[in-house]
Amino acid sequence: MPSGSRSALPHPASRAGAAPSGGQLVALPVERDDAELLRRLQRGDPWAKAMLFERYGALVERIARRILGTERHTTFADVVHDAFVSAYSSVHQVSDAAALTSWMRSVAVHTACKSIRQRKARSWLSFLSPEDLPELPARGADAELREAHDRTYRLLESFPLDERVAFALRYIEGMELTEAAAAGGVSLATIKRRIARAEARFVSAARRDPVLAAWIEEGARWTP
């Protein structure tokens, strides 16, 4: 390499590429701490944007799926895309690099909620067919489990949005109360109230459902 020249920073998602001589270039892993990642995100560095997606893409999609479930007309790739567009444009609001994970959870929650609101706003234009339903995340699950999954989310679709989100974060995603509060952008007291209301609503409705009633009775948490 000529003196004074700089090597190009490899894209974090790349693992190999063709060398100018026809050989194979293997990109070495690049480790950056969260503080540097945040600084470079706030500068609009393409490397930092790619790294943010690499670190948090799966988390954002998982949270979106937990909240949206079997929402019709939901393309999860679009929700994830929208979440990162929002993250890139609002990253200047983050002042503490240690809060990146919590912040990305909140971005995921906000984007999933926005997707639900948009769907409801245009629902009168929808003409749905079975082909419109998204693929269930639990591939290969037995018929009973898939049916319980569908019925759970049909119940959650009737919930007030704040309760639906609280229930999904706590009981489906399995977040601690403090994590769920941060992700929802509310106080600990508020998330506790929402979870309590959502739990009561869910148990009451599930016990009237012929499929979910059995799951409720078998589960130690909701067994009377």
CATH superfamily of the largest domain: RNA polymerase sigma factor, region 2, helix turn helix motif
Q: Shape from CA axes?
A: elongated
Strand order of the largest sheet: 1-2
In total, how many domains does the architecture comprise?
2
Largest sheet: 2 strands, antiparallel
* Derived structural class: mainly alpha
Tally the helices. 9
Separation of the first and last Cα atoms:
73 Å
Specify the CATH architecture of the largest domain: Orthogonal Bundle
Strand content bin: under 5%
Arithmetic mean pLDDT: 76
H/E series:
EEHHHHHHHHH
Please provide the count of β strands: 2
Provide the gyration radius in Å.
Answer: 21 Å
The helix content is 55-70%
CATH class of the largest domain: Mainly Alpha
Question: Briefly, what is this?
Answer:
This is ECF-family RNA polymerase sigma factor. The chain contains 9 helices and 2 strands; from the N terminus they run E-E-H-H-H-H-H-H-H-H-H.
Characteristics of this structure?
single chain, 224 residues, mainly alpha, Rna Polymerase Sigma Factor, Chain: A, Arc Repressor Mutant, subunit A, 9 helices, 58% helix, elongated, disordered N terminus, RNA_pol_sigma70_r2, transcription
Any overview of this molecule?
- The chain is mostly helical and about 220 residues long.
- It has two domains: about 30-135, Orthogonal Bundle (Rna Polymerase Sigma Factor, Chain: A); about 135-224, Arc Repressor Mutant, subunit A (Orthogonal Bundle).
- It contains nine helices and two strands; from the N terminus they run E-E-H-H-H-H-H-H-H-H-H.
- It has helices spanning about 35-40, 45-70, 75-90, 100-120, 145-155, 160-170, 175-185, 190-205, 210-220; strands spanning about 15-20, 25.
- The chain has a two-stranded antiparallel sheet with strand order 1-2.
- Strand 1 and strand 2 (about 25) form a beta hairpin.
- It is elongated and about 55 Å long.
- It starts with 15 loop residues before the first strand and ends in a 6-residue tail after the last helix.
- GO terms for molecular function: DNA binding; sigma factor activity.
- This is ECF-family RNA polymerase sigma factor.
